[in-house]
Amino acid sequence: MKTRQQPDLIKKHFLLHLEQFIHRHDLFRAGSHLVLGVSGGIDSMTMLDALCELREPWRLSLSIAHVNYRLRGKASDADERCVLRAAKKYGVPVYVRRADTGTIAAARKESVQTVARELRYSFFSALAHDIGAGKIAVAHNAGDNAETMLFNFCRGAGIQGLKGIAVSTSRGVIRPLHFASRAEIEAYAKAARVRYREDATNRSVDYTRNFLRHTIIPALEKRINPSLVRTLNAEAVILSSCAEYLEAVVDKEQLACCTQTESGYTIRLKHFRTLHVCIQQMLVRQCFSLLGIEPNFVHIEEIVRLAQTQAGRTIDCGNGYSALRSSAAIEIGKTKPVLPYVLTAELGATVTTDEFTFSIRRHAVPKTFRRDPFREYIDADTITLPLVIRTWQRGDAFVPLGMTARKKLSDFFTDQKISRGIKQNIPVVLSGKNIVWIAGLRLDDRCKITKRTTSVYQLSIQFHT
User: Fold this and answer.
1) What pTM value is reported for the model?
2) What is the CATH classification number for the domain harbouring 68?
3) How confident is the model at residue 419 (pLDDT cuts 50, 70, 90)?
4) Fewer CB within a 10 Å sphere, N or C end of the chain?
5) Cα–Cα distances in Å, from 437 out to 57, 141, 252, 358, 384?
6) Are residues 67 and 197 in the same domain?
7) How many whole angstroms separate alpha carbon 26 and alpha carbon 134?
8) pLDDT for residue 1
9) Which residue among 305, 331, 357 closes a domain?
10) 174/23 Cα distance (integer angstroms)
11) Is 98 helix (H, G, I), strand (E, B) or coil?
């Protein structure tokens, strides 16, 4: 008798928690029409079965959406057939999209996972719109959430990443199984005799998430916390509340100190410097997110530090973007590709390009020197005219101001953490074959003004942002 009752108790316990979770997070109301994203795996097939159990008391209208990514040959087709059989069993209409995901990913030069996710959610959204469904249910669970938090923690994704997977989104995506552990899902599937497909790749630790699932989390559970998944999910709730508050603050501050430009964002330093470093970091991260730049902690920290460094510094942000520290702002924008150029400048001349304006003028010997990276004073007797302004070339070397030995310009750029994409944008000023000035960065020590200097030239450069 116990063996017959046990499955019913497992099902009732699971369904009770499911209904409580739906009520607590207001995922949907009675009479709702839901699109269920069903892959054929244990999670989504369990979600399908459980929601079908709630269909009558909740007066739900359910529709199944399945994507055949054609990534695993016959196995992908078998997944599709499994979903079609389930749709017939439960009496639920089913919609299938087939896509050559690998071909699309190769053409776009994107990862298969990224393309698959885009195909999946674009199909779900379009279908929900077409059939009048109010919500899209997907089967992420507590284990998925724990893996996501650990993965994001290792990537340095900040508090936003440690929120984990949202229970619901503004686009109508809901995750009814967010509360359930894998063990609970497996127990329900066994009790309810849910038929599902096992993806062989789920067992391979070559995939990062599988490595976390099968190796890291079990090791942490054994050594540190047997209830790690539950603990991480509880932490996610706390961190999500903190993140929501901070995001509201960041939204307000972004309006106060950021301006969107044609190719990026301008962060005004006067207001930015008054903010707590936590808000500064989150504000930069938000600019990155809006521009489609991967939120890398190192790049975010470098931009925050730009606010305290001298003007003229440029750093690489990744994804084809760079940040320039001007006199009053940090300009984040697309790194402009620069074709090699060679220009000449006579005394009194002004040379203008799309990227900068350069000039050379006579000047009295300065009594004091104001720190300005865009203006330098040189001993006129140490150079010959005209000066040459050109792009960086391999093999370039100079004697940085304050040093006595020559240094390769490539090594200097590396020390300054200037990427290849950015160093192509930095003009190099020469007299004959000798470098005079790395414009905006460093003067050659051999051209500096000394006590014996009697004639001075002023070099100026203005970058066009």
Assistant:
1) 0.68
2) 3.40.50.620
3) low
4) N
5) 78, 59, 42, 12, 14
6) yes
7) 13
8) 44
9) 331
10) 13
11) strand
